[in-house]
Amino acid sequence: MAKYANPGEMRVPVMIERPETEINSNGIPSEKWKNVFGDGESVRAKWVNVHGTDVFQALNIDLREPATLTMRYSPRITRECRLIKAEDAGKENREELCYEIISIDDIEERHIQMEIKVQRWRNAK
After folding, report:
1. Among 13, 55, 74, 103, which is most exposed with the fewest C-beta within 10 angstroms?
2. Longest dimension (CA), the chain
């Protein structure tokens, strides 16, 4: 069964970043996150938060927020990437708002759309 999303359903702009190692002037390597599509560029995705009783039981302990995205296929997006909603990109606590990629599915191996499962860890308050 296909999991395709209509283009009108892809309403949430997200930024996708990949880690890159840079060497500073002292020769010390540091890791920086770079947008895979260029600085400030976002892509649109269908964003669905995960729901259900099993999820809520897991959330009691792990304090994580899972979601599923459907978007146009891009070979630039890999499991080592992370993503953030474009509206959160300029916020002060940006690092806490990033989602890690759990899995990527090239739907029906056709390179048209992909389904990405993500999660972010939340601090207990």
Report:
1. 103
2. 54
Q: Can you tell me the distance from the alpha carbon of 79 to that of 105, in angstroms, rounded to the nearest whole number?
A: 11
- How many helices (DSSP H) and strands (DSSP E) are in the chain? 1, 7
pLDDT in tens, 72-109: 999 999 999 999 999 999 999 999 999 999 999 999 99
The closest of 104, 90, 102, 79 to 18, measured between CA atoms, is 79
> What residue type is assigned to position 22 of the chain?
E
Tell me if residue 50 falls in helix, strand or coil. coil
What are 36-72's pLDDT values in tens digits? 999 999 999 999 988 766 556 555 655 688 999 999 9
